[in-house]
Amino acid sequence: xxxxxxxxxxxxxxxxxxxxxxxxxxxxxxxxxxxxxxxxxxxxxxxxxxxxxxxxxxxxxxxxxxxxxxxxxxxxxxxxxxxxxxxxxxxxxxxxxxxxxxxxxxxxxxxxxxxxxxxxxxxxxxxxxxxxxxxxxxxxxxxxxxxxxxxxxxxxxxxxxxxxxxxxxxxxxxxxxxxxxxxxxxxxxxxxxxxxxxxxxxxxxxxxxxxxxxxxxxxxxxxxxxxxxxxxxxxxxxxxxxxxxxxxxxxxxxxxxxxxxxxxxxxxxxxxxxxxxxxxxxxxxxxxxxxxxxxxxxxxxxxxxxxxxxxxxxxxxxxxxxxxxxxxxxxxxxxxxxxxxxxxxxxxxxxxxxxxxxxxxxxxxxxxxxxxxxxxxxxxxxxxxxxxxxxxxxxxxxxxxxxxxxxxxxxxxxxxxxxxxxxxxxxxxxxxxxxxxxxxxxxxxxxxxxxxxxxxxxxxxxxxxxxxxxxxxxxxxxxxxxxxxxxxxxxxxxxxxxxxxxxxxxxxxxxxx
Length: 513
Description:
The protein is α+β, with helices and mostly antiparallel strands. The protein has helices spanning 59-65, 117-128, 135-141, 167-170, 233-241, 284-293, 296-302, 331-343, 364-378, 389-396, 422-429, 441-452, 455-473, and strands at residues 39-44, 74-76, 83-85, 88-95, 98-103, 146-152, 155-160, 196-202, 206-211, 224-229, 247-248, 261-274, 306-308, 352-357, 382-387, 408-415, 476-488, 492-493, 510-511. Strands 1, 8, 9, 10, 11, 12, 13, 14, 15, 16 and 17 form an eleven-stranded mixed β-sheet that branches. Strands 4-5-7-6 form a four-stranded antiparallel β-sheet, with helices on one face. It is globular. Mean pLDDT is 90; it is low at 1-31.
């Protein structure tokens, strides 16, 4: 861990520069974002569904809010995995179930109020024990019970019901907000302590942030940042090449990356979540058949950038199991399994709906067409329904849509920013997980044992759980560890890291001249 009071900095490189000209609504010479030379112009694949701080663990929200508008007590260095000070300068474990955090002095929120232990305690309670149903609660804390109380203005004590060896890591996902924030309802425009504050959000058009003059840390170079969103990767790329934007993210190789593209390893893993409680997906032979007809090599070669994988966490995350390999592409074996299931009375003729999300990664719709073709080859029926982010979230998160939606495959992507499989297993595979459509008692027990372990025993327990999912549960068809591609104008220097898709820090961006 970094020493008390230290502030994270990152090395910077000049971008390789961006993309080739592409067709789209972008026009050379036009400047739809505006703002002048002191404004960062960023084009996203989609508008954030919310800026609610306790939903910042959602990719489309966190890439704007985390470390820009709001900050947490601790933060994880994405490249090394080390936990570092943020709004807390130091912390210590005072008993098996208690931790004490010392807050950074002199920090102010965007509304001018000071950072206090009262605000930190309020934020922890709001994120983990309110009627908001925060994503971070299900994702990071699951059913954990914890209590945060101020000891004095600069000291916070956090107590858990059970020993939690990674509590400081969990708290890196609790964005700290002032006590004036609505305690039991979501906020549209949050107040934080970050280097930027919200200036204007014109829904459907743009979001503009302004530099916060009283920021406690190093002032960012750019006075403002304006976000817009365009669904087509080729359009985002053209906006950079035409000097209409400085940064474009979520690009595919075919978008014309050229010598301005910057490729980077991400912590994102793409997968298909199977509705394993509904026939025919309740038969493990059908779930295995689907894995055999997902052409992972074809997808990562021709559709999006990535590396085929068989598990939901990337290398470097505690619990990653190098022995879990991607499923091979074997349509003949898939056909045999479906035929066996059909002969035993499984309703394999029931249509499976592939629920896709526009903009989840480059060429998302094309990827689901490849998946649909594979299901048809296996002898299954499948249709595709592509949704925008808000409609798609209804399928991703509990409570799921009411009524009989039929068997579904959900196009999803998971990024373990925290570096520990605890942040994957329970929320995605636990029977009651916030993003789980299916679980088993045996698998739940394995996850619980792994979460209580520490050191090498923790690594082994989570690695065994990933093997069990891949061999015995088969709830998912895991596809690929994604490679990120962004485009930078020649005016900006920025080095992306594995967390960039989830948390794009504006303060790390510099002028190239």
